[in-house]
């Protein structure tokens, strides 16, 4: 079997979502391949929220210093290939097809899942492109995530700890934090964001046990109007989301750590420009004005709470359109959202795991999200479309706000 059509190839690889093998099986698979992940200067990013944004900011900052940077993120935004990028550009269809076909016999023999295949394609592509650094986002959790096969990351980052994926990670913040701290490897460097005291202690103790240099994000000052002060320097970001100040500051501190390790002298003017221009789709992304339309992929309680804090700063009438996957704590998210708008509409999207609007009572529901958007555009100054990233991707792919 060989693929000649990119759509056919992507459809096939996406159909192989899961297998029943353990993390140790994929570790053995990588070893058979010569552990290509260990040839990369890798920065590994875990956390409940903020992973993708931190990856985006850090990638932009590193590129501003003249480095060729690969990123690996999930889920994809518009096309599957945007999971694997070099200097902000998706892996070309031709390269994705070629590498997939070259590795196909091995992938089939080892019965790999989509995510595992993507990871190995990423390794091959980054090595071909001779990237200087790879910034890799954890898929789920940390300790048993497929990306955790790397033995010697240059830096491990834990952005935030909140309640999400409790069926896999545990029911307390401390249990979830312990799983995410599984990315911390012996004799490496660790940076954490603003975690609560107990989670900070878990991260610190894990780092000490594994003889790691430990860094905690310092304080940053919100100066308003998207500006903030970090280590006596003033920066500006494109996003109006207050939670992005945390992620941008975390990326700046990571840049400082990497500059000492690599080493190189940071050009602060270039860093300021890169941070101001950096964007990350569907993270408080304003895609239209008059009326203002915002897309945000917050899909857990921690993310929704941070989202409404920023949405509250806008004046005028407000409508929120929400949809999510059934496996999420959507009821609790809805209870938060309804207190921060004039009108909340619950809708659906084309995914077998999506919530069914018809199953709700006591809330306004609109079966078709296109109709929900049209209703909101007619009457409100601010429209927030939020929830599952799969939902947001569908909204954009079907021509709304592309």
How would you characterize the overall build of this protein?
The structure is a single chain. It contains 14 helices and 17 strands. The chain is an alpha/beta fold. The protein has two domains: 6-277, Mur-like, catalytic domain (UDP-N-acetylmuramoyl-L-alanine:D-glutamate ligase), CATH 3.40.1190; 285-397, Mur ligase, C-terminal domain (Protein-Tyrosine Phosphatase, Chain A, Alpha-Beta Complex).
What's the name of the CATH homologous superfamily of the largest domain?
Mur-like, catalytic domain
**Can you count the helices?**
14
Output the CATH topology of the largest domain. UDP-N-acetylmuramoyl-L-alanine:D-glutamate ligase
Radius of gyration, taken over Cα atoms and rounded to an integer in Å: 21 Å
* Through-space gap between termini: 35 Å
Oligomerization status of the protein chains? single chain
**Low-confidence runs:** none
Strand content of the residues, in percent? Answer: 15-25%
The tally of domains stands at 2
Count the E strands.
Answer: 17
SS-based class: alpha/beta
Largest sheet: 8 strands, mixed
According to CATH, what is the class of the largest domain? Alpha Beta
What overall geometry do the principal axes of the alpha carbons give?
Answer: globular
What is the helix content? 40-55%
Neighbour order of strands in the largest sheet: 4-3-2-5-1-6-7-8
The assigned CATH architecture of the largest domain is 3-Layer(aba) Sandwich
- Average pLDDT over all residues: 95
């Amino acid at each position: 079997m060989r693929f000649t059509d990119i759509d056919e190839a992507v459809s096939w690889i996406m159909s192989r979502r899961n297998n029943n093998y353990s993390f140790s099986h994929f570790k053995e698979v990588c070893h058979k391949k010569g552990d290509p992940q260990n040839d990369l200067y890798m920065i590994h990013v875990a956390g409940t929220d903020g992973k993708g944004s931190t990856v985006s900011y850090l990638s932009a900052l590193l590129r501003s210093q003249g480095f060729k940077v690969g990123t690996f993120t999930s889920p994809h935004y518009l096309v599957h290939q945007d999971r694997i990028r070099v200097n902000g550009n998706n892996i070309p269809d031709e390269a994705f097809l070629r590498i997939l076909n070259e590795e196909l016999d091995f992938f089939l023999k080892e019965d790999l899942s989509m995510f595992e295949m993507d990871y190995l394609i990423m390794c091959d592509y980054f090595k071909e492109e001779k990237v200087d650094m790879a910034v890799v986002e954890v898929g789920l959790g940390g300790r048993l995530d497929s990306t955790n096969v790397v033995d010697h990351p240059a830096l491990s980052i834990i952005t935030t700890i909140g309640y999400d994926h409790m069926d896999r990670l545990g029911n307390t913040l401390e249990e979830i934090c312990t799983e995410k701290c599984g990315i911390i490897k012996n004799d490496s460097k660790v940076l954490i964001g603003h975690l609560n005291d107990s989670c900070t202690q878990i991260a610190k103790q894990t780092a000490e046990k594994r003889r790691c240099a430990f860094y905690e994000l310092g304080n940053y000052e919100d100066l308003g109007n998207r500006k903030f002060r970090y280590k006596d320097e003033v920066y500006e970001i494109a996003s109006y989301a207050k939670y992005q100040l945390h992620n941008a500051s975390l990326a700046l501190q990571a840049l400082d750590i990497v500059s000492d390790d690599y080493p190189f002298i940071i050009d602060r003017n270039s860093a300021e420009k890169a941070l101001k221009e950096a964007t990350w789709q569907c993270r408080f992304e304003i895609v239209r004005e008059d009326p203002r339309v915002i897309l945000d992929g917050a899909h857990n309680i921690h993310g929704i709470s941070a989202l409404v804090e920023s949405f509250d700063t806008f004046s005028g009438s407000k409508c929120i359109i929400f949809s999510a996957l059934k496996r999420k704590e959507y009821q609790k998210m809805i209870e938060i959202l309804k207190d921060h708008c004039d009108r909340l509409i619950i809708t659906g999207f084309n995914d077998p795991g999506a919530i069914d609007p018809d199953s709700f009572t006591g809330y306004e529901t609109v079966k078709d999200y296109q109709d929900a958007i049209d209703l909101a555009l007619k009457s409100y100054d601010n429209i927030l479309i939020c929830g599952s990233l799969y939902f947001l991707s569908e909204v954009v792919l079907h021509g709304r706000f592309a």
